[in-house]
Amino acid sequence: MNAPTYNFAYLNEQTKRMIRRAILKAVAVPGYQVPFASREMPMPYGWGTGGVQVTAAILTPDDTLKVIDQGADDTTNAVSIRKFFVKTSGVATTEKTEDATIIQTRHRIPETPLTEDQILVFQVPIPEPLRFLEPRETETRVMHALEEYGVMQVKLYEDIAQYGQIATTYAYPAKVADRYVFDPSPIPKFDNPKLNDCPALQLFGAGREKRIYAVPPYTKVVSLDFEDHPFEIQTWDRPCAICGSRKSFLDEILTDDAGGQMFVCSDTDFCARQQNQSA
Amino acid sequence: MNPLLQVEGLGKTYGNRLGCEDVSFELQAGEVLAIVGESGSGKTTLLRCLSGHLQASSGRVLYAQRDGRSVCLADLSEAERRMLMRTDWGFVHQDAREGLRMGVSAGANVGERLMAVGARHYGHIRSTAEDWLTRVEINRERIDDSPWAYSGGMRQRLQIARNLVTSPRLIFMDEPTGGLDVSVQARLLDLIRGLVRKFNLAAIVVTHDLAVARLLSSRMMVMQQGRVIETGLTDQVLEDPQAPYTQLLVSSVLQV
Amino acid sequence: MYVAVKGGEQAIDAAHRLLAEERRGDTSVPGLTLEQIAEQLTLAVDRVMTEGSLYDREWAALAVKQSRGDLIEAIFLIRAARTTLARFGYTEPMNTKAMRVKRRVSAAFKDIPGGQILGPTFDYTHRLLDFGLTRDEKPEAAATAPADLEQTMPRVLEMLANEGLIEQPSAAAREPDDLTQDPLDFPAGRDLRLQNLARGDEGFLLSLAYSTQRGYGRTHPFAGEIRLGLVEVSFTPEELGFPIVIGEIMVTECEMINQFHGSNEVPPQFTRGYGLGFGQCERKAMSMALVDRSLRAGELGEERIAPAQDEEFVLSHSDNVQATGFVEHLKLPHYVDFQSELVMLRQMRADIEAKTRKAAE
Fold first, then answer.
1. Measured between CB atoms, does A46 come within 8 Å of chain C?
2. Any residues with CB less than 8 A from the CB of C120 and at least 6 apart, and which?
3. What does the CA dihedral C143, C147, C148, C151 come to, rounded to 10 degrees?
4. Which chain C positions have a beta carbon within 8 Å of B15's beta carbon?
5. Residue of chain A minimizing CA distance to B123
6. Is C26 helix (H, G, I), strand (E, B) or coil?
7. Which residues of B are less than 8 Å from C264 in CB distance?
8. CA distance C268 to chain B (A)
9. How much is the pLDDT for A152?
10. Which helix (H) or strand (E) holds B50?
11. How far, in Å, CA of B34 to CA of B220, rounded?
12. Of A211, C147, C189, C199, which has the highest C-beta tally within 10 A?
């Protein structure tokens, strides 16, 4: 029986070309969701196939890849994806943000500021920010085309009417280049400010939903809000228990079943570096 | 002065079936026209063609915009048409559930049009919504309630508020009092009449109920089997109907 | 002093090794061979080929073995393998009329030209566990028919169509689209709908089909014809310029006769639903035909009120590989987003508490 052989980074060249064309369209129209013919990948839909396809399409043998999930390099899915790329491309990998040329991420933006030489690839489950108010693709497409985003403000209005504040804490919608409203993937709203005016190219891949979108370097990204209820990020009342940072997103770790908890940086690389610096 | 709406030879067919045919009339700013007929007369089809919900098969509709220029409805792009329907025009559905977002609060319903055209101050949007609820005689404390918690009459009034918040010039109404009981109807008609006068609204009201036509409109069109068979000042048509069908309609009303 | 959790990579490697052990099970028990799976679990292999969208019995048997019998997992393996294969092009349309029939029945007529051929089927068996199967005994030889089957059996629906009693099959106005090459868009043409349904989850389609029979969008179906057998596959290589037969595949085809329609121009006729799958998959082919007919509501002027008639709903949720991926992805870490929600919730509750205390004073 014949076993199949694999191209560099798994996808064949034709597929990579198709994905790159979609990426170029996405970069040309910031925030617009470009449909693409997502391929079946060896990992399940919903587990990062969109991000993996984008990374596979842009990866070169000279790249250095970092893969994180929830901000950490050592979470199981990040490990699995990193191993996939090592197996199918032999590319160099790193845990240090500043050494990476391509960073594939699920649900976080690294705390370390990015540079013009880097590309950040986001894994996206549901690319459509209007999906919760309008399940039909045919209708949401028209709404984007006609810039009909009133319904998004309605949702924020409802939150304030019901809870006294905007209740969205992750996948917080934002307007890109003053035109398209997009879903930045389920990053905590804490990370939204990093999207704005970022020196790196930010690419977003949704495999199951078959969409790619992009925020080119130094693009304006403004989170939606009201003038009298402005966008705010999360805060904690204590620093990271390991490195002492007061500026990073903190994970809550339950230490016992009597309510004991501690808070540590979600970005493990950042935390390690802060520790070394203070040491 | 250009009429607000100018309709020329408007018609709609569905394959072989006739919806409406050869309808022509003018509507001035601040004028209310009633389109009267039984079910199947084509009046709802006509209304939907006039309001841009349905594409006509023949004829045209000209609308005079705020800057004075007349534009043909069929020439508008999708974006322009949708913008028009959200700002300059209003549409009150017979079933309020079609004209409201049932899944959000009354306040959000009233505020949506404002937010759609760029309003970004929660406090202002909310107080504008409260004012409008009061104008349509809904207790402003109910601003956060879901429309599911409203009675039929209240939902209609909420629908009206939702439409009027952007100060439209022309409102289309499809059996606005249909399905409501008599006392609620009367109150609602009074409210509509008051708002039309106060805000100098033009309106086209489709109804099978001559009493509604008499109360709201200055002019009236009677339709039968897709065609306009009589038109004129409401009082005159009701006092002295010419066409046999109109005579039949008028005489069959017990109390006008 | 708290040390950050590490060792994810080692954990994954250990998990893979444990899985391999579990898969093999008790080593004193003989291991499954692919031949055993292909020969004796044929219907599992057929389903994996159909929904994996790849006709290869050996690979499908391997997938069934590797997935430990979890068929959706096996289908996933086949889909992923399919992606890596080179595409030579499209075959000529298959002529199922020239099928070497193993089984062929029609519920619409008592007898039909070519006959009602029962073939190998669970229909009419009594569902009693057969403990004779605990021993490996060779079954009695099945009787052979006194005469050969007719070479070509006319289609039941074609005979009806010749009388004008049923709509003609939809003519191909253009080259069919390819679901595996272009993203699905709505509204979708019937070609894409059928491709989507052929790959769709059998259980999902079964439930939707069942719902139509129970009143959620009734189509009054009759099983016009169900065929199972071998059909030739032809391909025209560029170098030759003419079609050559490259092999035979086993398919199941179902044509449903549905609610008649008429209009002012066309007198009333029955309408059609179509289903097709690899191997023997009658439940799938029949369900597919019923759902195909329901999804044609738009072009037949029927009101769309039932889930089986909702094109976006059906086609967006029929792919079990996509579905299981997304449902099971909930097992992935979501603690950052959950942390965000915790922060907000605690704050809201604190605000309410503060307000209540203040009101009490």
1. yes
2. C102, C103, C280
3. -140
4. 263-264
5. A228
6. coil
7. 15-16
8. 17
9. 92
10. helix B43-50
11. 5
12. A211
User: B177 and B208 in contact (C-beta within 8 Å)?
Assistant: no
Go through B63-80 and write b for each residue having 16 or more CB atoms within 10 A of its CB, e for each that does not. bbeeeeeeeebeebeeee
Q: Tell me the C-alpha distance between B129 and B131, whole Å.
A: 5
User: What tens digit of pLDDT does each residue of B124-173 get?
Assistant: 999 999 999 999 999 999 999 999 999 999 999 999 999 999 999 999 99
* Spatial contact of A252 and A240, defined as CB atoms under 8 Å apart: no
Would you say residue C264 has pLDDT above 70? Answer: no
Nearest to A37 among C182, C312, C339 (CB): C182
Percent of chain B topping pLDDT 70: 98
Q: Give the position of tokens 């055993």.
A: C36
Q: HSE (CB half, 13 Å, CA atoms) of B45? A: 26
**From A42, A70, A171, residue closest to C333, measured CB to CB:** A70
Q: Which ranges of chain C would DSSP assign to H, the alpha helix?
A: 8-24, 34-40, 42-52, 57-66, 71-84, 156-162, 190-199, 202-213, 282-295, 311-317, 320-328, 335-360
| Torsion angles phi and psi, residue C223, rounded to 5 | -80, 100
Chain A residues with CB under 8 Å of B121 CB are 226-228
- A81 at interface of C, judged by CB pairs closer than 8 A: no
Neighbours of chain B (3+ CB pairs under 8 A): A, C
The pLDDT tens digits for C66-109 are 999 999 999 999 999 998 888 889 999 999 999 999 999 999 99
C38 touches chain A (CB under 8 A): no
Q: In the sheet that C100-105 helps form, which strands lie side by side, from edge to edge?
A: C100-105, C222-235, C244-261, C269-278
Strand order in the sheet with A174-176: A180-182, A174-176, A221-223
Of A167, A171, A242, the CB nearest to C344: A167
Residues of B within 8 A of A146 (CB-CB) are 78-79, 82
- Whether A3 and chain B come into contact, CB under 8 Å, resolves to no
Closest Cβ opposite residue C312 in set A137, A262, A264: A137
The token pair that represents C50 in the structure block: 């159909």
Task: Spell out which residues of chain C touch residue A205, defining contact as CB-CB under 8 Å.
Answer: none
What is the 3-class SS of chain A, one letter each residue? CCCCCCECCECCHHHHHHHHHHHHHHHHCCCCCEECCCCCCCCCCCCCHHHHHHHHHHCCCCCEEEEEECCECCCHHHHHHHHHHHHHHCCEECCCHHHCCEEEEECCCCCCCCCCCCEEEEECCCCCCCCCCCCCHHHHHHHHHCCCCHHHHHHHHHHHHHHCCCCCCECCCEEECCCEEECCCCCEHHHHHHHCCCCCEEEEEECCCCEEEEECCCCCEEECCECCECCCCCCCCCCCCCCCCCCCCEEEEECCCCCCEEEEECCHHHHHHHHHHHC
Q: Which of A53-62, C23-32, C138-147, C249-258 has the weakest average pLDDT?
A: C138-147
